[in-house]
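quick one if you have a minute, typing this from the bus. below you get a single protein, a line of residues and a line of whole numbers that encode the local backbone shape. could you go over both lines and see whether the tokens make sense for that sequence. anything you notice is useful, everything is just below.
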Amino acid sequence: MVHSRKRLASTEQTGYIIPTLLAWGERTLAGELAVWEASVQRADGSFDAVDGVPYTFDTAMAVRGFLAVLDEMPEFESHIRRACQYVIEQIAEDGEVRTPSLALWRTRTGEMLSEYGNLYVLPPLVEAGTRLREPRYVDAAMRALNYYKSKPDLVEFKSSITMISHYFGYMMEALIDLGEVELARGAIQQAAAIQRPDGAIPAYPGVEWVCAPGMAQLALAWYKLGDLERADRAFSYMEGLQNRSGGWYGSYGVGARYLPDTELTWAVKFFLDCCVWRRKIHGAAPS
């Protein structure tokens, strides 16, 4: 499901919720979702977004899901290979990650969210290349990484909804997972600089409202970087925002502009990922 106001199946969210479900012991459900994901793959290896158009990002998220179940369900190797081939065909010679459409990356008011979010496409490509012994996948991902690293504003947490904490969070986690730890550590200091004593992190510099998935993603990045104090404060603040339903709206606070009246599946996904890392670090396993 995309979110509470659009009850459609999403290959993007299905793909990246699978490893989260496995981390919580939901192996049967994870396997069922992977089977469904495979059933809707296009002949060219891509996956449609909810608007019926194939997206490079969504295809890479499907790869994340298949990789998570690959050891137990090796039949998904062919689906991974087809999807990765599609993804590398979308990476230009200069390294830019292209996609047939970015229509769904626009806010309700028309702003285009940062294309730098495509950094999140690269870690599953590297993992697939390593596990399947396909250096072409890794080479394409490294070419793309170098392309984005050449951008002077790559890691600027800007005062604009186009660089909302949700997308900045994608970037921070991707950089960490790609081994660019010091780059991520330096960049995330911009979020640390505006984190409030109660743990809240404004959706971007210059506003008071917070983006719920962005809160979870930045907490997750801090857990991965070992900054437990900041991660715990952000996590605790997000806990306090939780709706009675168990979910989260896209944003909270005066002037909130990111789906403030809609509960998001990806806010839940990243919160659950934070729980796994928090319990791992603090000595308890998910239950």
